[in-house]
Amino acid sequence: MTDTQWLMVAAAALALIAVAGVMAWRLAVARQDAILRTLQNDMRALCNAAVGMGDRVNQMERRLRQLSERQEALGLRQDQLNQEDPEARSYTQAIKLAHKGAGVDDLIEVCGLSRGEAELVAMMHRLGKE
């Protein structure tokens, strides 16, 4: 083999190596592109989920505000009723005493309830604690 032939064989081998390198590089780039697309899709899904969760939190906060306002309004209404109706005030006081652990006789004496009323309030209090 002459020098020219050796040079041509070496050039061909070098060309084959270069082609193989380019093909390997393209394959690696294609894999990285696929991974990148997957990560982008995952990120998009996470962002959508975060937005959805934020909307849900806002909705829950609105509902909580509404319930708090309603509870406050009901509390004011109960206070109004207690002021208008002394009998309702004695039941409210009996319930508060029952929550503090007062017995039936205490409810009768302090609130002026009948024994049946006092037993009912005490029983409801016990059921509420269990």
Alpha-carbon distance between the termini?
102 Å
Structural class: mainly alpha
> Which quaternary structure do these chains form?
single chain
Low-confidence stretches: none
Q: Can you count the beta strands? A: 0
Q: What average pLDDT do the residues reach?
A: 87
Counting H and I runs of at least 4 residues, what is the number of helices?
A: 4
Overall tally of structural domains: 2
Radius of gyration: 41 Å
Main beta sheet: none
| Order of helical and strand elements | HHHH
Shape: rod-shaped
Task: Draw up the topology in text.
Blueprint: H1 3-84, H2 86-99, H3 104-111, H4 115-129
What does this structure look like?
The chain has 2 domains: 1-67; 85-130. Helix content is 92%, strand content 0%. By secondary structure, the protein is an all-alpha fold. The model has no long low-confidence stretch (mean pLDDT 87).
Task: Offer a few descriptive terms.
130 residues; 4 helices
Task: Describe the structure concisely.
The chain has 130 residues and is an all-alpha fold. It is built from four helices and no strands.
